[in-house]
Design goal:
InterPro entries: CheY-like_superfamily (IPR011006), NreC/VraR/RcsB-like_REC (IPR058245), Sig_transdc_resp-reg_receiver (IPR001789), WalR-like (IPR039420). By secondary structure, this protein is an alpha/beta fold. The protein has helices at 16-28, 40-49, 68-78, 93-102, 114-125, 136-144, and strands at residues 8-12, 32-37, 56-60, 83-88, 106-109, 130-131. It has a single domain, classed as Response regulator (Rossmann fold, 3-Layer(aba) Sandwich), CATH 3.40.50.2300. Helices cover 45% and strands 19% of the residues. The protein starts with 7 loop residues before the first strand and ends with a helix.
């Protein structure tokens, strides 16, 4: 019987407590967290040192040093195969669209149920896109145009 591949994740968020809690949650669901980082610059430095490139990066939109927009663009420039899941309290249409333009494959609001984050990770890993309920309409309009 073949075992499903473990999804390798990098989690990038500037809030320490949130980052630690989400990483524990992801590990509890059977995902492998390769590293966590407090901003985009730190993430780019850490990914270069990893034995494996993550399958997916969960990226906070608003961070100091290097925000989610810059981080997403830079990561995809270096590792075009990466899947990017934006993770934010921010459901502002302009910022959602900007993350999609930068290459994000999905967008989950931080207030989402933990099972929603799990579903989003699995959906992106399997080649799909995922958007929280408050984001779906913005994403649909974006992809129509």
């Amino acid at each position: 019987m073949s075992k499903e591949p473990t999804i390798k994740i990098a989690f990038i968020d500037d809030h320490d407590l949130l980052r630690k809690g989400i990483c524990d949650f992801l590990i509890g669901y059977g995902f492998e967290v390769l590293f966590e980082a407090e901003n985009g610059k730190s993430a780019i430095d850490k990914i270069a040192l990893c034995e494996y490139v993550p399958d997916l990066c969960i990226v906070d939109v608003n961070m100091p040093v290097m925000n989610g927009f810059e981080t997403t663009k830079k990561l995809l420039e270096i590792y075009p195969q990466l899947k990017i899941l934006a993770f934010s309290v921010n459901d502002d249409e302009k910022d959602v669209i900007k993350m999609l333009e930068c290459g994000a494959n999905g967008y989950v609001l931080k207030g989402a149920d933990p099972d929603e984050l799990k579903k989003a990770v699995e959906t992106l890993f399997n080649g799909g896109q995922y958007f929280s309920a408050g984001i779906v309409e913005i994403a649909q309009d974006y992809y129509k145009n």
